[in-house]
Write a structure and sequence with these properties.
Elements lengths: L4 H14 L2 H5 L2 E15 L9 E13 L7 E16 L27 E13 L2 E8 L2 E2 L2 E2 L9 E9 L5 E12 L6 E2 L18 E11 L2 E10 L3 E14 L2 E14 L6 H5 L18 E13 L2 E12 L31 E10 L8 E13 L6 E13 L9 E11 L5 E13 L2
Antiparallel strand pairs: 1-2, 1-21, 2-3, 3-4, 4-5, 5-8, 6-7, 8-9, 9-10, 9-11, 11-12, 12-13, 13-14, 14-15, 15-16, 16-17, 17-18, 18-19, 19-20, 20-21
Length: 439
């Protein structure tokens, strides 16, 4: 299944000729501006080559058409992404302690690109409450979620169908074939941690997914999803989200369970020897790379009068790390422990987390919010024995509420990661964002 720019452009032209009032009047367009400064300081490396300091300006154009009238409505969406380097950090010199690669693609000489861009088009069709989308996708599901943690977002290519014909039930299914990383212009196949080295790794072009959300009551939602990355893993997800009024506030309970097994070549020693391998499996101190994972978690969040308290626990069981789509250039796992630096998903890992947030609107400063989260993980399976790590994340956000620049946002995100399972890291992100409506 290929979605070439020429074919999608032809589809756009046909739709434009058939456009009617609904197609035009329901269309939306915006330009999101994102100024991003990223600084990472690795503490205990032999040299400082993993440190990074980069600054860039991102432009994200989004167009969403309405649908043509009739039993079957047709439409088209488009996204255009441009990143401009303001400061690329390292200059490619092997003796330079700062290196590029976090916000911008790295050129053959080791330097950061001065700019990079990517674009995508999505053809869509709608019948009643069922919608088909083919082309560029930004999925946000338990078994696959796009990453938006840098200057520009990651995008996927494939097809997806979503149906809401039954009240309270949302069904989703589809297939993904390629992805463009958040700091890349290349369309690449799909992979997982342990097999995603750009030079020697294995990548495939088939990821199937299906599932649904069902509102059992207005406060209780049940979820089931299935994901299958060909020749790597099969994954089942069960989720339960409940909101409960308590003491004038709200208690949210978020329960998640993943069961993942090997698929195709990952299930055989010969296939894993070819590179279809997962990270984090230790049998007698030997990494075999077979997917075998059960991960469950519980997160409780209580909100009241601007205050938000959270506490959670996650257990990774089985002999492999938690498997998820990961091309090695920035990815998101649907885990309560996927945070600013770490993900806490190694084989055997147990993680506790606690957080606190406050909305200063209650003190007369609307738009100002602050939060802090602490995670502590241990029992990580490793050839060298039990390993541990912890992370502390602090975030401060402010959005202008009035005036000419209403909606202008400022965000400072500071995090530290420590432990004997990883490099000690300090990281800062400074982000200024603004969305300009065009239609």
């Amino acid at each position: 299944m290929k979605y070439t720019p020429i074919a999608l452009a032809v589809a756009f032209g046909i739709l434009a000729q058939q456009a009617n009032a609904a197609f035009v009047e329901d269309s939306k367009a915006s330009l999101d501006l994102r100024n991003f400064y990223y600084d990472r300081n690795d503490k205990n490396t032999a040299d400082n080559r993993n440190e990074a300091s980069e600054w860039g300006q991102g432009f994200i154009f989004n167009f969403q058409s309405g649908f043509t009238e009739g039993t079957v409505g047709f439409g088209v969406d488009a996204i255009g992404l441009l990143g401009v380097r303001l400061d690329g950090g390292g200059d490619g010199d092997v003796n330079n302690s700062r290196k590029p690669g976090q916000l911008f693609p790295t050129e053959s000489n080791g330097k950061a690109s001065h700019d990079y861009s990517k674009a995508g088009v999505t053809a869509k069709a709608k019948v009643s409450k069922t919608e088909l989308r083919v082309g560029t996708l930004l999925p946000k599901l338990p078994v696959v979620s796009y990453n938006d943690g840098r200057l520009l977002p990651q995008v996927f290519e494939g097809g997806q169908i979503t149906s809401q014909e039954i009240d309270g039930l949302t069904l989703t299914a589809g297939q993904l074939e390629h992805a463009k990383g958040r700091s890349s212009t290349d369309s690449r196949g799909l992979s997982i941690g342990g097999a995603n080295d750009a030079r020697t790794g294995q990548f495939v072009n088939t990821f199937y997914f299906a599932g649904g959300d069902y509102k059992l009551t207005k406060d209780l939602t049940a979820q089931y999803y299935y994901g299958n990355l060909e020749d790597f893993y099969k994954q089942h997800f069960l989720g339960l989200v409940h909101n409960y009024a308590l003491g004038g506030g709200n208690l949210k309970t978020d329960l998640r369970y993943f069961h993942s097994d090997a698929d195709g070549k990952n299930g055989s020693a010969s296939g894993r020897a070819e590179g279809y391998s997962s990270s984090g499996y230790y049998g007698g101190g030997v990494t075999t790379g077979e997917v075998d994972n059960q991960t469950w978690s519980a997160l409780f969040t209580y909100s009241h009068s601007g205050h938000e308290l959270s506490a959670g626990y996650q257990q990774v069981e089985g002999d492999s790390a938690f498997p998820f789509l990961n091309q090695g250039d920035g990815s998101t796992a649907y885990l309560i422990t996927d945070r600013q630096i770490g993900k806490f998903l190694a084989a055997g890992q147990r993680t506790w987390l606690a957080g606190y947030g406050y909305d200063f609107a209650k003190l007369g400063v609307p738009g100002l919010k602050a939060s802090v989260v602490y995670l502590s993980g241990d029992n990580i399976d490793n050839a060298q024995g039990d390993r541990k790590e912890w992370e502390r994340d602090f975030r401060l956000d402010y959005v202008l509420q009035e005036g000419t620049l209403k909606g202008l946002g400022f965000s400072w995100r500071n995090a530290s990661l420590r432990g004997n399972a990883t490099t000690d890291i300090d990281e800062n992100r400074l982000i200024v964002s603004y969305s300009l409506p065009l239609l």
